[in-house]
Each structure stands twice: as C-alpha cells, then as structure tokens.
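Quick sanity check, Caffeoyl-CoA O-methyltransferase:
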Amino acid sequence: MSTFRLDEKLSSYVVGSCTPPEEAVSNLIRRTMALGDAAEMMIPVEQAGFLTMLTRVSSARRVIDVGTFTGLSALAFARGLGEDGKVVTCDVTDEWLSIASEHWRLAGIDDRIDFRCGPAKRTLEELENEEAADIVFLDADKTSYPRYCEAAARLLASGGLLILDNVLLHGTVVDPGNAEDELGQYAAEIMDSVSARLAADERFDTVMLPIADGMTIARKK
C-alpha cells in the first residue's frame, strides 16, 4: 500500500491517477521491492512524483536529502532540478549505493547527485560551511529528527523548504502505546513533540499533509 490511510484498491487508484513514472524510477522501485522487508524504507511512487514537482515549482537549485537508501528520493529531487542544480544525499551506510548509482545513471542525472557516507549529524555540520539549501528532506532515524530540524533551520535559505517524512508513523503519533515495541513508542513520542514544536516555530510556516505515512512541509521565513 502506498498510502497508509487507504485500502489497497484505493491506493492503486491514487497511483494510477498520477503521471506514470519514467523508466529509471519504475526500475528502481522494482529493484528495491526485491530487497524484502528493507523496502519499507523507500518512499512510495506518488510521493516521489510530488517531490519532483515541488522541486520544479519552487525553482530549487540545492537540495539536502537525509537518508539515501536506494536513492529514490535523491532521484526524485534531481529530476526536478535544472542542469546546474545539486542534490547532496547522505546515509550512514553505502550498502545500497550500487543500486542507487545505477539508476541515477539510467535517469541521466547522476552528475547532479553528491552522495556522502557517514552519520547525518556530521554531514549536516559539514554542510553549514557550504552554500545554503533550498530544500532539506528528512527521511532517516526518527529519534534524531529534533537535531536534524535544528540543523536544517541553519542550512536553509530564506524561503527554503524543510520536509519531514513519516511524521504519522502509521498513526502511532496519536497513541504511542499502539507501537509495536518500546523503540517504536519512543519514536512516536519524539515525532509528536517534533511536530508540535515545528507548528509553533515562528521561523517557519508549516503544513502537515496525509501523503504516504505523513509528510510535513515547513517554509523558512
């Protein structure tokens, strides 16, 4: 299911009502699905299309993508950039980099993507010495979102977008006790506090959308 609030039939209808993904995107999704349970970390196809569109309409030139996995979000952002744009994507591991790189090349946008391996905290600190970002996308360790959000606030240019993925955590944010385990409960509590703080943060205009597992978009003033 691509969207947690919909049943399988309606979810398929949503996907079918979007512009069909290009070959590189479709191939990457199939390759990632073959990984089994790990594929749950991949953004759904309609979310990838939305990120591409958002990048285009905002005329973004520089994107920071926290949580590479098999590279679908980086690919989605890179497709929305102009030829002079750049996506800096980072992950704590390069386990799936070969899959990502293959499909970035297939899409013809590999020259727009800069992969950096290591803890996100370190990478975000390093990026503070570089050009300001137009978009920062967080799709990594949920318990670290408070730290990542503060880093993003420093990294974003005025008018830039902070995008948080999985902000609903399959609904457990409204009842952490329904999480599968203690770690899931802790993550739900952290995510709930992050969302509350961001909604009240005077540095941003914030909206939460029921896309995929919930996505928050905050525009830096």
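Posting the structure with no commentary besides this: The first strand starts at residue 62 and ends at 66.
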